[in-house]
Amino acid sequence: MTFYLLKNKKAKSFMILSQDIFKFLKKLANNNTRDWFQANKEFYKTHQSNIQIFGEQVKTRLNTFDSISNFKLFRIYRDVRFSKDKTPYKKHFGLTWKRTRPELRGGYYLHLSPGESFLACGFWDPSKNDLDRIRYELIHDGDKFKKLIRSKSINSIWNDLQGNELKTSPRGIDKNHLNIDLIRKKQYIFSKKYTDKEVCSDDFLDDIETSFKAIQPFLNYMSEILTTNKNGESLF
């Protein structure tokens, strides 16, 4: 089991993730039982510790151009109380970085899973009040929003805006509205996929930094919307 310490061109130390993480997750997927996990818990603890270190390094990078209040590595234990799937463990590691409230909104996420790793950022669980405020902006002045999400600086790195959406228009809103495709959304998310090899390369940390820096104008614009009332007046 390996975890690497490298030196970059500026002589600053940085860590890279090991392929052993994905090997462990593959074995866990095929042996998702408490007995197997307890027998291999030492390996899990090592990977958990290494990913925690990596997450803190990402936080440090983010804080060079953003303001991050906290970093969290999600528990691997599943909540099976209301699920038909009773397997006790997740088959991935999830990391999230929250921006400093109340001025800044939105957040960043990294999903590590064999063959299914990705970065994501944006607004994946907006409250009803936040969703109403975003929709109000899109109804009355959506041009800046559309120009931003279609900008070359974002689209050259990220995929198109994603997110679950209503099957029809929200109550009281014209289904033929010019921006109905955006108004119907319940989430406003960007994501970017990675291969296992890319995740474990010595360029991965740099790529995360570049990708999150590129999406920051979108997060800042959304923060501006969500920290003002419908008259554009600050809520704080």
Layout of strands and helices, then pairs:
Layout: E1 4-7, E2 13-16, H1 20-30, H2 34-39, H3 41-62, E3 68-73, E4 93-99, E5 107-112, E6 117-123, H4 128-140, H5 143-149, H6 152-155, H7 180-183, E7 188-194, H8 196-199, H9 204-226
Helix pairs in contact: 3-9
Tell me what you see in this structure.
The protein has helices at 20-30, 34-39, 41-62, 128-140, 143-149, 152-155, 180-183, 196-199, 204-226, and strands spanning 4-7, 13-16, 68-73, 93-99, 107-112, 117-123, 188-194. The strands form two sheets. The chain has a five-stranded antiparallel β-sheet with strand order 3-4-5-6-7. It has a two-stranded antiparallel ribbon with strand order 1-2. It has 236 residues and is α+β, with helices and mostly antiparallel strands. It is 40% helix and 17% strand.
What is the CA–CA distance across the termini? 49 Å
- Stretches where pLDDT is under 50 for at least 5 consecutive residues are 1-12
Tell me the total number of β-strands.
Answer: 7
How many helices in DSSP terms?
Answer: 9
* Main sheet strand line-up: 3-4-5-6-7
Q: Provide the succession of SSEs.
A: EEHHHEEEEHHHHEHH
Mean pLDDT: 92
The best one-word shape is: globular
User: Which percent range fits the helix content?
Assistant: 25-40%
Beta-strand residue fraction: 15-25%
Rg, please?
20 Å
**What kind of sheet is the major sheet?**
5 strands, antiparallel
**Class derived from helix and strand content:** alpha+beta
